[in-house]
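Bug #77: duplicate submission created two jobs. Keeping one. Sequence:
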Amino acid sequence: MAIAGAAALLASGCAHGGAARKSKAPAAPRDSTAALIARADSHLDLGVAEVRKGHLNRARQEFDLALNVYLGAPGGALSSPRLAEAYRRTLQAIQLHELAALAAGDGFTEAPPEEAAIDTVADLELDELHPSDDTRRLAEEALRSESNDLAIQLNDPVLSCIDLYQGELREWFAEALARGGRYLPRIRDVFAAEGVPQDLVYVALVESAFKTNALSRAKAKGVWQFIPSTGKRFGLRQDWWVDERSDPDKSTRAAAQYLKVLYEEFGDWNLALAGYNAGEGKVRRVIESYGTEDFWELARTRAFREETRNYVPMIHAAIVVAKAPATYGFDVEPEPVLEADSVRVSDAVDLRVVAECAGSSLDRLRLLNPALRRLATPAHRSFDVRVPKGTAAATGACLHAIPPERRVAFRGHVVSRGQTLTGVARQYGTRTADIAQANGLSPRARLARGQELIIPVSPRTAAAETRMAASEPIPEAKVAQGEDGPKRISYRVKAGDTLSAIARSFKTTIGALKSWNGLQGSRIAAGHTLTIYTHR
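Kept job's structure:
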């Protein structure tokens, strides 16, 4: 489209030239170099605009077109000092914008967690609060007007928590209740299927305020705040790529199953909730020590830590207020349910590429896929990516059409004979453990020649590499003026080929091969066609 626009511009210029000749005005000399630079700049500007949207493939396509304008010029990019300087400026601009994309997220940096609501519960001092008679009256009226499948106790600790939700924690509670709209319908379905009281859906409000990426001081994570060991106990996968504690569907199923296990052991939902917070072993020991199975009686002692003593009344109060928010002056519009389809992808795919294919934003994709710890799907296995409703077919077709090496914006490495994980890590300035985790390997795993690795390069290292690349000589710099320009050929990659071997064969550089072909990493697949400019 940009090329067509440039052609139209040139045609328009010719028409104006003809008009000038008819009027016998002197014709301005046609500056073909300026026109060529303008065409290249047009593609460069379009590429920059795509980078800002997070659409990396489209950006690379425009950047490639900008470079091809120079490389396809008569005599090559160095046919004149002016053209050579413009080519260098364009190449450096492209590299700087690729660096900016890395700064925005190199794909391997873990998404930062959010504060967990449960840490607030631990800091409350309910004993110092004194609920009013109005609070009790409103709560009693609310209970009479709502059906409950959990026996709600309107004692002073519960009423004090209701006061907190109306006062100090009002804004927090309203935001949590609105956010819950994304997940509550699905949570209700799961709890109904598992035979867990519907009122307990609001455990998630107290635990995380319905934030999928909430992380507590105790390293509990997700909407249901599973610690690592309990998450694994209930089948929630946790590795370098994925943490299913943040998956709202899978973690809800796990939470329902855990609550059932706790209830089956203690036969009381209040004790089950205490066990969910403190662990069933702690509840078991407390019951044995104090000789009672009444949670409220135990809460009046020092049997439990303050967080657990606060936890159960916070949940009772959340149920009362959340089921009758208008009674307590809340005017909350629940956020819409997150509806999505899924697309199965194999190996690591950059979420920015998926967003581009889905016609969606990166933020939306991350919201739909909170279990992904990084901006990519896992390497060396399949993963079902959630995409906006109705976009699965188009997204799948788009991803299928993109060459494998363009689906990932990360570093790739093909193992050569005798290389070890430690040696590869030293080469890229990263840690052996990070490469091992990224590729599902043991840190002591032996590597095979030709094996392809994903390399998690730090943004600082990537920035240094990009700055070095920007200062490298232009590949055609040794061509003297007046010599024939470089020839453009297509090279079909064979099994066992590497970029370094191809670069040596054609007397060029790996950086040049990457620029000509829009490659981010060094991974190339047999059968893929590379564009190469050579003087042979």
